[in-house]
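Team,

Forwarding the record for the chain on the shared tracking sheet. I've put the sequence and predicted structure together so nobody has to dig through attachments.
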Amino acid sequence: MTILAVLFFLLAAYSVIANDSIQTLGTWISSNIKVVKWWKMATMASAILAGTIYYGWYANDGDISYGRLTKIPHQEIEWYHGIAPVTLVVLTKVGVPVSTSFLILTTFADGVVFNKMLMKSVMGYALAAIIAYLFWFLISKWIDENRKIKEDNKPYWRIAQWFSTAFLWWTWLTHDIANVAVFLPRQLSFFEVSLIIAFFVGTIFYIFRQGGGKIQKVVLNKKNTRYVRSATLIDLVYAFLLLYFKEMNDIPMSTTWVFIGLLSGRELAIYHKNSDINKKTIFPILKKDFGKLMIGLVASVIIAYAVTLLKLL
């Protein structure tokens, strides 16, 4: 690996985990931060990450991307490949949740693959919103998310949440690990993959120590996401959605779009079931989240065109 490849990988690894961890670990952090020490949560997340990457590396002959990069061959890393991870670091620092798949992979993918990624992501957003709306609309007959759960039931929900988060964290990693693996050779040694995992673990501990960072606000401003029951249900539905798209095909997609679609559908279902909720507070939040997705998509297209032009020079 060249120095540029290592440098851009480190930038991408930090920013992808920091920006996208909200999708998988955000609700877990928000609902547990006051009752579970942050380093215990970070340790569990790190153990699952290490197991997922080691297994993918072993099962795919040294490739940690879980087959997500079969349509994107390895390229010699040039300076312009660093535009995307640097942009992502900046957006993460200011708290804008964007599609890391679009922002980074479009630098390497051709137009055909990009179009397939976009179509799969749009379908993911729409399907997640519809399923979330129907799911939360139906369960509202038995579960009122505006009411806190009984103290006696909290331990059971907390255990369920840890399992659902572990399941979600694994499914997400099998998707988005490709966003950093794209900077690496498709075959890595055991020593190389161990160093990669060590850096990821350090990043995870830093993120948990910071309580999720500015990106965490996207989760915190949604209805009852601090409640362990709500967080468990969100994680479980999201995990099954990602598993479905993982098995669909090996085209990369934006898991961020699926996550925002899920939260949007859930918010609308809760709004329709609760007439006391002011729609003037709901729709601006949904509009703001979708606007951030568009910012990331536009930035991705601009960067992709810029890299294409630079390659011709």
